[in-house]
Structure formats: structure tokens, C-alpha cells
Amino acid sequence: MSLWTETPAERQQGITDEVQGKKRRVTDAPVEDDDAQEVIRKRRQKSVDDHTRMKRGAALIEQHVEAISKYYTTPVHVDNLRHFDLSRY
Predict the structure, then answer these.
(1) What is the rounded distance in angstroms from the CA atom of residue 51 to the CA atom of residue 34?
(2) What is the pLDDT of residues 46-84, one digit of tens each?
(3) Could you tell me if 77 and 65 are in contact, meaning their C-beta atoms sit under 8 angstroms apart?
(4) What is the DSSP letter of 73?
(5) Residue 20 domain-assigned?
(6) Cβ distance 40 to 33 under 8 Å?
(7) Fewest C-beta atoms under 10 Å: which of 11, 31, 33, 68?
(8) Number of domains in the chain
(9) Can you tell me the distance from the alpha carbon of 38 to that of 55, in angstroms, rounded to the nearest whole number?
(10) C-alpha distances in angstroms, 74 versus 16, 61, 65, 70?
(11) In this structure, what is the dihedral angle of CA atoms 64, 65, 69, 75, given to the nearest 10 degrees?
(12) DSSP structure string for 18-71
């Protein structure tokens, strides 16, 4: 029960339970390990990345490089296409 909504009787019962050892205080409750949460977060992010990689196609620049390299004998690299990058301006 929340501290904001408990009645005085519930509060007294909670205090007696804490004294008798039936229940822990909220401040004494064990804190979840940050490392465990980090492991869970990394595992979830890896799963999302794998799913995204499988469901989405290649990046647009990679598609263009592949299409251009079919027509030219010399391989086309992404560095050669930098002059088309409008984000530099």
C-alpha cells in the first residue's frame, strides 16, 4: 500500500509487522543491482538491433554504391561520394 493512501490502522499494522520481522521497511528493501539492469538493457538493445538489421534493407548509400559499382569496372567507395553529402553545408 502506498504511504499516501494508507489509513492509520494500516500504518500501525505495518509498523507491528516490521517490529515482528514479518515485513521489511521500504528503506531496508534490497536495491536492484545496477549491473543486472545494465545486462538486461544491453541484451534488449542487441535484440532490437538484430531485429532491425534483419527487417530493414541496406542503407541508402550502400544501395547506391552497389548500383554504381555494377556499371563501372573500378570499385566505388563511400569516400568518393562525399561531395554529394549535403549535411556538410
Answers:
(1) 26
(2) 999 899 888 887 788 888 888 887 777 666 566 656 666
(3) yes
(4) S
(5) no
(6) no
(7) 31
(8) 1
(9) 26
(10) 82, 17, 12, 10
(11) 160
(12) HHHTSS--GGGSPPPPHHHHHHHHHHHHHHHHHHHHHHS---HHHHHHHHHHHH
Residues 39, 32: Cα–Cα separation, whole Å: 12
User: Is the residue at 26 inside a domain?
Assistant: no
Cell matching residue 74: 573500378
Domain presence at residue 42: yes
**What is the amino acid identity at position 70?**
K
35 vs 54: CA distance, rounded Å: 29
Q: 30 is written with which cell numbers? A: 534490497
Q: Which domain holds residue 68?
A: 31-88
Judge whether 72 lies within some domain: yes
pLDDT surpasses 60 at 28: no
Find out whether 78 and 61 touch, Cβ atoms under 8 Å: yes
